Amino acid sequence: MDEVQGMESRLIQSGSSRVSRGSRGPNGILWKSVSALCIAVILILPAISSAAGKPNRVSVEGEVDVLHIDEFDKGKSRMVYWIKDKVTGDRTELVFDREPPQSLRSGMQVTLRGRKADRKFHVSEIVSGLQETGSFEGAETDVSEAGTGIHHAIVMIVNMPDSPGEASYPSTDDPGTPGDESAPLYYNSGHISQVEAQMFNNNYSVDSMYRESSFDQLSFPATMGNNVVLVEIPYFSGCPYYSIASAADSAASTAGVNLGSYHNRIYLVPPSSISDCSWLALGQVGSYGGSSVKLSWSTRNDTVAYAHELGHNLGWHHSGTDPNLDGVWDSEYGDTSGIMGYCCYKRKVNSVHVDQIGWYDAPDLADTVVTVLASGTYQIAPLGSDPTVNLHPQILKIDKTDTNEMYYISYRRQVGLDAGMPSKYANGASIHHASETGNRSYEVKIMDNGNNSQYVDNANGLTLTQLGNDANSVTLDINFVNCARSAPSVAVGPATQLLAANGQTANYTMSVTNNDSQGCENSTFNLALDSVVAFSGSNVTSGFSHNLSATSMNLAPGQSTGINLSLTPQAVADSNFTLTVKANDLSVGVHNGSGQAELMLDSQAPASPSDLTATHRKVKGQKSVLLEWTAAVDASPGSGVVSYRIYRNGVLVGQVAELKFADSNYSSTGANDYTVYSTDQAGHVSEAPAAVSYTDGGGSGGPRGGNGKKRK
User: Fold this and answer.
1) CATH for 489-601?
2) Which phi-psi region, left, alpha or beta, contains residue 276 (left: φ > 0; alpha: ψ -120 to 50)?
3) Which residue spans of the chain are classified as CATH 2.40.50.430?
4) CATH T-level assignment (fold) for domain 57-132
5) Given the DSSP bridges, would you call strands 441-446 and 429-434 parallel, antiparallel or unpaired?
6) What is the radius of gyration, based on Cα positions, of the chain?
7) Cα four-point dihedral sign 516, 508, 536, 642
8) What is d(CA 408, CA 386) in angstroms, rounded to the nearest whole number?
9) CA proximity to 396, closest of 308, 475, 306
C-alpha cells in the first residue's frame, strides 16, 4: 500500500498541462498498469466474506454509511447502506430484514446483529447506537455544525486514462484546444473553471444558493486555494464509488492537497461510457448538526446536482408529492420548488427543509415561523424574503394530528435565486406535510385564486381557502371545523413548603393550560384560591391572606401560562395544609380545572434530648469524650427533629444528625460542661438542653480514667 501511495497519481490544476498517459511515477513504476491493479486489489476486497447460503449469526460494531443514489432520468432513487467494522476497518454492504429506520444517518456508531451471507451483512436487529460519532477519515475541520457556518468543499474532477471507453474522446464540450494535447481525456484543465463557476462563481451557484436560502447562515466559499482539482485514477469496472473516492483522495494528497481542510468532498466522474457509473449523482446522508466529513459523487457538472447531493450530506431526503395523504410519494422528485426535487431547475429550498434544518431557529427570525392554533385570516410573506421588513410570517405550521406530523404553508415567488423556479408555485400557497424532526418532504397541493383555491382535510377538520395574493403576500382563511373542549390543566409548584411562623409567606407558581383542540376559539379562564384545608379536615382559608398576580387569562388551544400565588398564615394553629386553586370558564361547562399543593406550618420548638452521658474513650491513640443521648421528640404536627447542636463550656463544637458525638478537643485539665439542643426542619431550637459535665481523672500507662455527671 505504501508503494501504491508513493506512486505519482497525477493532479492537474488551473494553468498546468497534462502529461501523457502511461508516464512513470517517481519510483519508476508505470502508473497506468501497476497502480490500477494494486488499488483495485486493495480497495475492492470484500469487507466481510462468507460462504453463500451458510448463515452465521453474529454481531458487528462500527460506523454506518447511508448513501442516496439518485437516478433523476428514471425518476427514482435507491438507498444503499454500509458499515465500516470498528475492529477490522473493513466496509461491508448491509441488507435489512425489515425497513431500515429513517433516523439512520452516515457517521452513526451502531451495533448490529444478523448474519453474513453473499458477501453482505443481513441485519436482523440494531442493538444500540443511532448516535453520530463525529468521526471521519482525515484531519479535523473547523466546521462544528452541518446546518450552519462556513463549509469548505473540494471538487475532484476525475479522469480514468485506462478506461475502455476513453478512446472516443476528447469530449464534445471540451473547453480547451484539443490540438494542444497529444491525447485528450474526457476532462482537461479547462473544466476547472467550469466547475468553479457552478460551485462558487455563477450568480446561481452552490455557494450563493445556500447563502440566500439560509439567510447567510451557511456558505460554501472558494477560499481554500484548491477548491477544484483535476486528478487521474485507474479505471474500476462496475463503478465502485468508494474505490473511486479513495483513488482520487490518494492522487490529490500526493499532489499536496490537504483534504483534512474540507468538510465536503465531491467527485466529478466521467459519464457511464467511461466510468461505468450509471447514476446521475449520489451522496452520503448526514445528520442535522453533524460534524463528520461527507462525500458525494456526480456525473454532471451542474449547480443543482451538486447542491442536491450536498443537501443529502446536510441531512435531507427528497421533496416528493403526496396529494392523497397516504404518506407515500406519488412522485419522489415531484416537488420542483426545492433543490431536493427533480433536477435541474434553478431554485432554493422549500419550507419543510428550511424548518427541519433549523435555519429559522435564529433569534432574529423567531417570528418567521408561526404555528396556527385557531381559525382566522392569515397572511404569509414570500419564503426567503427579508424578515426585517416583512409584516407577516413566511411559514405557517398546523398540527396534522392523525399522523403526528405538521402541515407547512408557504408562498413562493420567482425572485432572487428562485427566478428559475416553475411558475406554478408563484400563484399561491404551497401546502406540504412532514415531520418536524424528519428529513422527507411531501407536497400536497399548490393553491391559486381559481379552481385550486380551497383545500379540505376532513380527517383533521381543516379547511384552507386562498382569498388572494400579490407580490408581497398571500392571504388565507384557515378554518378548523372540529372543536373538542376539555378541562384545563392546573399545576401548582413547588409541591410542598414549610413555614416556621405565622406571618411568613409561601410563594407558588400556578400554571394553567388550555386543553381544547385546534379550531376552538380562545378561552378566558378565571383564577382563584379555592380553599386551604388543615390536616383535621377543617377549612381555614379565612386564616390566610393571599395574592394572585392575575385573576384571569386568555389562552388559545394548547397554550399555557403561569401566574404567581403568595400565601401567608395570620393566626393559624400548626398543621399540614392542602391548598386548592381553580381555573374555570363559566361560558363552557367543561372548563373547570384545579390543582393542589401542600403547606406545613410549624411554629413550635421541639423537646430537648434526654439521658445525656459522657464517657472517655481512646481509639488508635486518639483520646476523646463520647457524648450519647436519647432522641428528642417534635410532637405532631411538628416538622420533625433533624439535628443536634453540641456546646462545650458555652461554645458550639458540633452539629450532628446522629445520637452521639465524639469530642477530641476537650480539656484534659479542667471541667468540660456539655449541653445538647435539638433542632427541627423549621429551624426551631429546643428551649432547654440536656447537660452533662466531664472531668478527666488522670493516670498513665493505659486508658485514663474519668467521670461524667449529669448537670441539673
Assistant:
1) 2.60.40.2310
2) left
3) 57-132
4) OB fold (Dihydrolipoamide Acetyltransferase, E2P) (2.40.50)
5) antiparallel
6) 38
7) positive
8) 19
9) 475
pLDDT for position 131: 53
Q: What is the mean pLDDT of residues 556-583?
A: 95
Q: Is residue 6 over pLDDT 50? A: no
Distance CA 131, CA 113 (A): 17
Contact 466, 450 (CB under 8 A): no
3-class DSSP string for 272-322 = HHHHCCCCCEEEECCCCCCCCCEEEEECCCCHHHHHHHHHHHHCCCCEEEC
Q: Which CATH class is domain 610-710?
A: mainly beta
Query: Which ranges in the chain are annotated with CATH 2.60.40.2310?
Result: 489-601
Q: Which of 134, 130, 154 is nearest to 145 (CA)?
A: 134
Tell the residue number behind the cell numbers 460462504, with chain if given: 51
Phi, psi of 654 (to 5 degrees): 180, 160
The C-alpha cell at 190 is 479547462
Q: Look at strands 11-12 and 395-400 and give their pairing.
A: unpaired
pLDDT number for residue 2: 33
pTM score > 0.85 for this model? Answer: no
| Partners of 10 in the β-ladder | none
Sequence-distant (6+) residues with CB within 8 A of 452 are 428, 445, 446
pLDDT at 57 over 70: yes
- Distance between CA 82 and CA 685 in Å, rounded? 70
User: Helix 36-44 and helix 241-254: axis angle, to 10°?
Assistant: 130
The answer to whether 501 and 603 are in contact (CB under 8 A) is yes
- All cell numbers assigned to 124: 436482523
Query: How far apart are the C-alpha atoms of 163 and 432, rounded to whole Å?
Result: 45
Task: Kindly tell me if the per-residue pLDDT of 48 is higher than 60.
Answer: no
